[in-house]
Amino acid sequence: MNFLDKLIHKDNHSILAVTHGKVLHIEKIPDHAFSNRLIGDGLAIEINSPHIYAPCTGTINSIASTRHAFTILLENGVEILVHIGLNTSKPNEHDFNYHVNVGDHITPDTHILTLSQQFLHSHQFKVITPIIILNSHEHPIKIMTTSSYTKKGKTLFTYK
User: Is 94 helix (H, G, I), strand (E, B) or coil?
Assistant: First the structure.
């Protein structure tokens, strides 16, 4: 753990990488609603692993009926959206194998879901996954990673 990671981990307001992959700043996400921060602020990971973990400690607040997204509610009122892929609102329900349910308490070690190999193949193993603070107007981002690649559990950003 380098100095910046140690400094960031002292602040308990960290959002971690849900898996490993290429980091995309929000302006680079090829989706108008995300890139213009209409939904909130955050980052994306171009994931290349089928395993998705929790980015923080909290409670699973919702799982989309199409299973392509979920939200986490933190004790301090912050709400995090993890949106698996872009244009994935009509996926095959078997593409997303959830290991948690709404209401479950989670930590960064919690394995949230596994993506099907078919889903990864259909996206050429480049699934852009935004991780967004939905109420970022109340909890703005303070520090963002400058890394172009991340691994599961590494700090992506902190918030106020």
Answer: helix
Domains of the chain (ranges, CATH numbers):
3-159 (2.70.70.10)
Q: Which of 13, 100, 108 is nearest to 54 (CA)?
A: 108
Query: How many angstroms separate the CA atoms of 68 and 74, rounded?
Result: 20
> Tokens in use for 155?
């700090």
Residue pair 152/20 in contact (Cβ under 8 Å)? The answer is yes
Known catalytic residues are 83
pTM, two decimal places: 0.90
The DSSP letter of residue 12 is S
Q: Which carries the bigger pLDDT value, residue 46 or residue 121? A: 46
Q: Give the up-direction half-sphere exposure of residue 160: CA atoms within 13 A in the CB hemisphere.
A: 7
Instruction: Give residues with Cβ within 8 angstroms of 123, minimum separation 6.
Output: 85
Give DSSP secondary structure letters for 13-52. Answer: -EEE-SS-EEEEEGGGSSSHHHHTTSS-EEEEEEE-SSEE
Per-residue model confidence (pLDDT) at position 123? 72
Q: What is the pLDDT of residue 92?
A: 72
Q: What token pair was written down for 129?
A: 């996954």
